[in-house]
Design goal:
Helix content of chain B: over 70%
CATH topology of chain A: Rossmann fold
Order of helices and strands of chain A: EEEHEEHEHHHHEHEHEEHH
CATH class of chain A: Alpha Beta
Distance between the termini of chain B: 39 Å
Structural class of chain A: alpha/beta
Largest interface: A-B, 14 and 13 residues
Oligomer: heterodimer
Largest sheet of chain A: 6 strands, mixed
Helix content of chain A: 25-40%
Number of strands of chain A: 10
Radius of gyration of chain A: 18 Å
CATH superfamily of chain A: P-loop containing nucleotide triphosphate hydrolases
Number of strands of chain B: 0
CATH class of chain B: Mainly Alpha
Number of domains of chain B: 1
Number of helices of chain A: 10
CATH topology of chain B: Methane Monooxygenase Hydroxylase, Chain G, domain 1
CATH architecture of chain A: 3-Layer(aba) Sandwich
Distance between the termini of chain A: 27 Å
Order of helices and strands of chain B: HHHHHHH
Shape of chain A: globular
CATH architecture of chain B: Up-down Bundle
Strand content of chain A: 25-35%
Strand content of chain B: under 5%
Chain lengths: 254, 221
């Protein structure tokens, strides 16, 4: 496997929820401007792992982490890490589209207001660019004051991605971003991911193995908190090295 | 969890094994029709080829369904791809059996045909290669499959010897052109069967070990 620039690296990462050992000695290297899929049966730790990358797990009581997680070379668990700027750099899209009950425009500027100062002119540009990036601009440019909750589910999910893009992140984490969408909307989001990877690194958690196969460049298979196999997606889905991976992706267990 | 899909893969394998046994039988009969100069055996081979053709189409259809409906991955995908090619190889071998049987019929009408020593030898090796290739598929045994690959050179050498000998015999007028032509056709067809048996063995290695060994790919690395 040829390695480009690494955006995220974990070194002997362990995570405990009080007494439960949820991630066990994870060593993973995620490449820049590639889509990396995390797959595995429910409870294997894939969502926990993706939430480590912007320290979303900090909010859960009893969480303890050992080992190192480097984002752009800096250990995000070191005491001098600025959480706000980490989450600017590492955005997140969730399972269910969760736009704020605000207008389309305010959804996009919400983060900007909290995180930084921007001139109004600058904001207008950011709104336009992020909506263009998720292919919503033509549909919504005349409806920026409309409530985001009136959009279709797919449009809502696109808007949530645009909301992340407005912050100019480097990495976009997606935790089952299509599980609330129908198959056509799912394919559209997958197509969008292919566009986005030209500028962003994407890590996606998915239950849908066909989605991992179609949409990702690299696949990591987790089972019971361990990283069983990591490699190029085309390799994982044609000739995996590990029997557990083989059994999982061919539907023999899980 | 045993999936319904697994049963369909098993049934695909069973169909291929059935196809393999019909083809193996036809090759054996066609060879006997040559060595025993038996017109009836040759006729039997020619007539039963339709059965092989029908099986080929049946298996092809089953494979299209599995690919379209199940989106197989990993070893399931490699098995289905191997099955698709093996199916095609077996059908071709069936055609070569017909060619050999037709040559046998021509030879039957020529008095005093002397089979060259190499022909029965080739027949024996070819038949064994085919049997071992099909067995390696039934048992999914890459070791057996690799043994088949090693035998192919012997057949190539024997084929060249037959062609050379026929040319010598023709030059010295010890054989009629008709007889020489049929003997070299038989030799050529057996050599093709051995090649196709080699292909089958290569597909078994691809399925079981995810390794491409055809066209001496491993030696080139």
């Amino acid at each position: 496997m040829s390695m480009g620039h690494l955006t995220i690296e974990t070194h002997n990462l362990n995570l405990y929820y009080t007494n439960f050992h949820a991630l066990i000695d994870i060593n993973l290297a995620i490449q820049e401007q590639r889509i990396t899929a995390l797959i595995g049966p429910s409870g294997c730790g894939k969502s926990t792992l993706v939430r480590v990358f912007n320290r979303m797990n900090d909010l859960i009581e009893g969480v303890r982490v050992t080992g190192e997680v480097l984002v752009e070379g800096s250990n995000i668990f070191s005491p001098d890490t600025d959480l706000i700027s980490l989450r600017e750099k590492v955005g997140m899209v969730f399972q269910r589209p969760n736009p704020f009950p605000l207008s389309v425009r305010d959804n996009l500027t919400f983060g900007l207001e909290i995180h930084q100062e921007h001139s109004n002119k600058n904001r207008t540009e950011i709104i336009e660019q992020s909506l263009k990036d998720v292919l919503l601009w033509n549909d919504l440019k005349d409806h920026l004051n409309q409530s985001a909750l009136r959009l279709s589910l797919e449009q809502q999910q696109r808007l949530c991605i645009a909301r992340v893009l407005a912050m100019k992140p480097q990495i976009i984490l997606m935790d089952e971003p299509c599980s609330a969408l129908d198959p056509i909307a799912t394919l559209k989001i997958e197509e969008l991911m292919q566009e986005l990877k030209k500028n962003y690194t994407i890590v996606i958690v998915t239950h849908n193995m066909q989605q991992a196969a179609r949409a990702s460049d690299y696949t990591a298979f987790l089972y019971l908190g361990e990283l069983i196999e990591f490699g190029e997606t085309k390799h994982i889905f044609s000739a995996p090295e590990q029997k557990q991976t083989e059994d999982y992706i061919t539907g023999r267990f899980g | 969890m045993e999936r319904h899909f697994q049963k369909e893969l098993e049934s695909l394998k069973t169909s291929l094994i059935k196809m393999g046994s019909v083809v193996e039988e036809n090759i054996a009969l066609s060879i006997r029709s040559v060595t025993e100069k038996n017109r009836e055996l040759a006729q039997k081979v020619i007539e039963s080829d339709v059965r092989i053709d029908a099986l080929e189409i049946e298996i092809d259809n089953a494979i299209v369904d599995l690919l379209a409906l199940q989106q197989p991955v990993a070893s399931d995908l490699r098995f289905i791809l191997a099955a698709l090619k093996i199916n095609n190889d077996l059908e071709r071998i069936g055609d070569h059996a017909v060619n050999i049987a037709q040559a046998a019929q021509v030879l039957c009408s020529i008095p005093d045909v002397e089979l060259l020593n190499e022909i029965p030898k080739m027949a024996e090796i070819t038949r064994t290669m085919l049997k071992e290739a099909i067995d390696s598929f039934i048992l999914l045994d890459p070791v057996k499959a690799r043994a088949v690959l090693k035998t192919d050179d012997q057949i190539d050498n024997l084929n060249r010897t037959v062609i050379r000998t026929v040319i010598e015999l023709l030059k010295s007028n010890k054989q009629t052109a008709e007889c020489g032509l049929e003997l070299s056709l038989i030799s050529r067809n057996m050599e093709r069967v051995a090649d196709l048996a080699t292909n089958i063995a290569e597909e078994v290695i691809f399925h079981t070990q995810a390794r491409v060994v055809k066209h001496h790919a491993e030696n080139r690395k």
